[in-house]
Sequence to fold (163 residues):
Amino acid sequence: MTERVQIGADGTEIGIRGGRPSDVGAILNLVRESYGQYVAAEGSKPAPMTADYAHQITEAKVWVATREDAVVGLLVLENMGDHLLLENVAVAAPCRGIGIGRQLLEFAEVRARGLGLGEIRLYTGRVMTQNLHYYPRHGYVETHRSLEDGHHRVYFTKVLAPG
Fold:
């Protein structure tokens, strides 16, 4: 499934498609760029830096945003049966602020509804303070905080309106 959207003042087309094995290198670079800054504050690598993206691609959990055939965004989704887990969303630094993250979150909502799920859940690191403000602006509500696998996590949920 591919969704095309127009964003940015220049009208650059952004595609969202399933991840491919050939995307793994670009995904790893994007993840290092997006999460590397948190290693010191977290005391270890954030979970997205240790994920097996090649395996997740084979399980059809990975979606990428592309701009002129380059991977500029990442979305990892998992059907948990009663909700969709948004495991990871990241946007390349040069492309932040033009709506790619919002488009990826909206894509997750479309996927959830397509699977018959009415809720999306996610978690983020406590040290990723910009996320603690970003997700509520997009309708997510903080549910709790906990220490899990050595990571201080903040959990959010979004109940989807029927659509």
User: Anything to note?
Assistant: The longest helix spans residues 100-114. Helices lie at 24-35, 39-42, 53-58, 100-114, 129-137. The domain at 3-159 is CATH 3.40.630.30 (Aminopeptidase).
